[in-house]
Specification:
This protein is mainly beta and about 150 residues long. It has one domain: Porin (Beta Barrel), CATH 2.40.160.20. The protein is about 10% helix and about 65% strand. It has 1 helix and 8 strands, in the order αββββββββ. It has an 8-stranded antiparallel beta barrel with strand order 1-2-3-4-5-6-7-8. β4 and β5 (about 85-100) form a beta hairpin. It is elongated. It starts with a helix and ends with a strand. The relative contact order is 0.21.
Length: about 150
């Protein structure tokens, strides 16, 4: 099983990418921090380009509060303003945040939000890069900072 995973990872990383063009995929693993709540989060994001320079990026984040748990789901659309090695974009979309409390009469709280922000893709090599992003969530009223490692799939 480990050999299959190693071969799959090698094939996945052996593809190269030169921009943000139709039918490309990207996978990201990152860390997210909210300014207001102050929770640290582990984020997983996928990105698909249905059109040139326009992508859809669903993401799921597990936050780590001191007690209870928190998670977020975001579905964002990104429009890329530049290409080459540094690719900058603006983003907007939908976000859903849920926090479950332990030993607290509140129990649970949920927020739907409109995400507005921007970020970039900075390539280190053809297959790997870094993705800094800043996003404000209207409805949750929180500013989020995210840094991810990007895997350019194709």
């Amino acid at each position: 099983m480990n050999k299959i995973l190693i071969v799959f990872a090698f094939l996945l990383l052996s593809f190269s990418s030169y921009g943000q063009y139709k039918e490309q995929f990207r996978a990201m693993h990152g860390y997210e921090m909210g300014v207001d709540k102050g929770f640290f989060g582990i984020n997983f994001t996928g990105e698909y380009f249905p059109l040139n320079y326009f992508s859809i990026a669903p993401s799921f984040t597990f936050f780590t509060p001191a007690t209870g748990n928190a998670r977020a789901f975001d579905l964002n659309a990104r429009y890329y303003l530049t290409e080459k090695e540094s690719q900058w974009y603006v983003t907007s979309g939908y976000g859903h945040y849920t926090r479950a409390f332990e030993f607290n009469p509140i129990g649970r709280e949920s927020f739907n939000s409109l995400n507005l922000g921007g970020g970039g893709m900075i390539k280190f090599i053809d297959e790997i890069g870094i993705n800094p992003e800043i996003r404000y969530q209207l409805g949750r009223n929180d500013l989020l900072f995210k840094v991810s490692i990007v895997y350019f799939v194709n």
